[in-house]
Amino acid sequence: MATSLTPIEYVRSILGIMVFFVMFSISTPFIVLFLLLSFGKATNLVIKYFSPFIAYPVLWVIGIQFNVIHHSEQVEPPVIYTVNHSSTLDLLTMIALALPNVRFVAKWELQYNPLFFIVGRITGQIFIQRKKSDKAVKRLRASYKRIKKDKLSVMVAPEGSRKHPGIIGPFKKGGFRMAIDLGIPIVPIYFKGSRELSLGSSLLTKKGTINAHIHPPIETKNWQQETIDEHIKEVRAMYLKWAGVS
């Protein structure tokens, strides 16, 4: 993790935070209007095109070169995308991917920001209370019908929080339960570089490169809930390998 920033990097980081909220504020009324005029049918287009519109200017200002590297052909939704989470920069890189028909599993507290609340609710993001596992599971399962009907993909951070022990923290079961229940593949995404560039829990960051490695899908049709711990261990081992710690 980054431990010090140059004066220029501090300035760029502060400007990046300002640009993020400006871009988000500018986008919000257009998103609301667009969805109202389309009777909510344009949600996938909104997420696909407005997300990078918000994210890329911020990444440019703070000096981050963001690359997306596909290790297989792009898969069709629905799938469960899993991502490693160790930096606030992940908020930008996740939305910058602009993956088709994707919805994000986000922490409940993000809704305390009125802009996040409005955009998150009208675009159908999944907010969960991570510290209350029973409620989180119920919230995830309540989304199954919509995922099947609209052929949606879901992006989850199985570590649950960027604050965790080690480079890759313990994995929670929620996303893996969804994959088994719905019978859809898991597509692992590994963000390389965000941990090294990020400073603490803010958007203060060093200049550098982040590569998003989108790996081949993992079929889950033969997985069982009884053996979920073994499957989670296998997937987490991949992330440990990519992180260079095993």
Summarize the structure.
This protein is of the alpha/beta class. 45% of the residues lie in helices and 15% in strands. It has nine helices and seven strands, in the order H-H-E-E-H-E-H-E-H-H-E-H-E-H-E-H.
- Would you count the extended β strands for me? 7
**Lateral strand order in the biggest sheet:** 1-7-6-2-5-3-4
CATH architecture title: 3-Layer(aba) Sandwich
pLDDT < 50 runs, ≥5 residues = none
**Tally the helices: what do you get?**
9
Can you tell me the overall shape?
A: globular
- Strand fraction band? 15-25%
The third-level CATH topology is Glycerol-3-phosphate (1)-acyltransferase
Number of domains: 1
Give me the strand/helix succession: HHEEHEHEHHEHEHEH
Round the mean pLDDT to the nearest integer and report it: 89
- Look at the structure and name the CATH superfamily: Glycerol-3-phosphate (1)-acyltransferase
Radius of gyration: 18 Å
**Which CATH top level class fits?**
Alpha Beta
Distance between the termini: 19 Å
Main sheet: strands, sense, barrel: 7 strands, mixed
Helix proportion of residues, in percent?
40-55%
Structural class: alpha/beta
